[in-house]
Amino acid sequence: MIYFDNSATTQADPTAVETYSKVSANIWGNPSSLHNFGEQAFNLLEQSRKQIADLLGVSLSEILFTSGGTEGDNWVIKGTAIEKRAFGKHLITSQVEHPAVQNSMEQLEQLGFEVTYLPVDSEGRVSAADVKAAIRPDTILVSIMGVNNEIGAIQPIDEIGDVLMDYPKIHFHVDAVQTVGKGLHDLVFHPRVDFATFSGHKFHAPRGIGFMYMKRGKRIAPLMTGGGQERNLRSGTENLPAIAAMAKALRLVLDDEADKVERERSIRQAIMDHIKDLPNVTLFSQANDHFAPHILTFSLDGVRGETIVHAFEEHGIYISTTSACSSKKEQASSTLMAMHTPEHLATSAVRVSLDASNTMAQAEEFIKVFDVLYDGFQKVFAKNLADAR
């Protein structure tokens, strides 16, 4: 099996799974309990928090645990809206955000908030100038993803952050789910970024766990109230086994990060070089600094994305359409549509997403299978050409 769908989810690291199992078996006390067993659980919770903070170069108090990226995005957006509603009801985002951001914004619109959805260029990137032009006196939040999950475009977080230096009261949120282990730390943690959200299963931790960076001094309303965990900001008994496993997974994924990034980039480039000049192939990910090293999205003109995915699956290779969250809905990529990509190309787009565990030998096998499938689709290409005439 060749697994090239790492942007959807990664395989949990065996040592992270081992940590999860050991904590589950041996430290089952509630971190909020006063007895020694509860204190043992609390200490491990804070050790895990400190490890994550140290790895990211932030303060321990700036890390809050969540169930993953979707909760984190919802929390920042809705929590900001609740916290700052007295100061304004205008939010800014882009047309290419993850559904967790997009749908949260739409829900706020139903409650009377106003949202500006910024367009993107031919590479799927937002303009910092457009962000500045959209700011109003009542703007309370700018939410822009770090790396687009569909085509891998890196958003100009640094440029947007520079713009927002002149607007210190506006919250700046980065959905950083696709950035971990990709050499993008300095981009995500630009001095002006107030909130960044992360999902453990994107970097070999178990599913159902994540964390949020909240810059010291910033305020946000809780979405989950109850027992007052996470400094009374996110109630609910902490998922300690998953938190400890996530801390372990983050340390492992950041070990030798530069070497891993270069390996992923080389594998992606090998595939890209093979297919980029072929007729009826359109590349949406580019080999430049505006794109993350692990995502390659392309289309075979006239062949639906799900057909391509299942054709590769028959050869033991797992890729995806452009977003796992919407792939079963058989919808065209929202990012490609925002880029004004013709629908027949957007509906045929598929995504290869890599990880440090992938190898050049796997890329070579992918290329062999691609050639077989490409030859098999020649009748489709010919029909499309005849229909176009």
TrEMBL record:
Whether Ribosomal protein counts among this entry's keywords is no
* Cofactor dependency: pyridoxal 5'-phosphate
The protein's name is: Cysteine desulfurase
GO MF entries: cysteine desulfurase activity; iron-sulfur cluster binding; metal ion binding
Annotated source species: Periweissella cryptocerci
Instruction: Give every Aminotransferase class V domain span.
Output: 2-365
What's the family? Belongs to the class-V pyridoxal-phosphate-dependent aminotransferase family. NifS/IscS subfamily.
Keywords (alphabetical) are:
Iron, Iron-sulfur, Metal-binding, Pyridoxal phosphate
PROSITE patterns for this protein = AA_TRANSFER_CLASS_5 (PS00595)
What are the TM regions of this chain, as residue ranges? none
Please give the Gene3D superfamilies that the UniProt record associates with this protein. 1.10.260.50, Aspartate Aminotransferase, domain 1, Type I PLP-dependent aspartate aminotransferase-like (Major domain)
Q: Which domain of life is it from?
A: Bacteria
